[in-house]
Amino acid sequence: MIRRPLDPVAALAQMRDLCNRAEHCSGEIRKKLINKGISRGDAERIIERLQDERLIDDARFARMFARDKVEYAGWGKFKIQMALRVKQVSDADIREALDEIDNDVYIKRLHDLLTRKIASMADAATYEGRAKIFRYAVSRGFEPAIVSRLLHTFS
Prior knowledge:
The chain is mainly α. It has nine helices and no strands. Helix 2 packs antiparallel against helix 3 (about 40-50), helix 4 (about 60-75) crosses helix 5 and helix 8 packs across helix 9.
C-alpha cells in the first residue's frame, strides 16, 4: 500500500497534537515531517509556526531532557551531550542545559551508580575490578576525572 504524503495543513495539525502531548525538539519534528513526505521548505515553515506558538522550544527541550536523563536514567553529561547532538539541538542550547544540571544531584547519581556496580562485583577491590567499574561509569557518559576522583573514595 502506497501512502500519499500529507498536506502541510494536516501535518501541522498532527505535529501540534504531538507537541501538546510531549516535549519535542525541532530536529525530531523535522525528521517526522520529512518521513511523512513533507518537503523541507514546508517542514521548516511548520516548525517556525510551532515555535511561534511555543509548542517547540529547543532550549526548554534540552533542559528537560538533560534533567530527566541525569535524575531518572543515570546518564552522565557526555552521553546527554551526544544524544542532544543526534537530535540536532544547537551547541549553545546543549551547553546551557548541561550547565543547569544540579551538581549535587549529578554526583549523587554517579555515587549511586558506582555503589551498585561495586556491590554486584566479586572482584571490585582488585585493579581489574576497579578498571571495569571505571569503564562502566565512563560508558554511561560520566567524565573520567570525576569518576576517578569518586572511585577513590570507595575503599
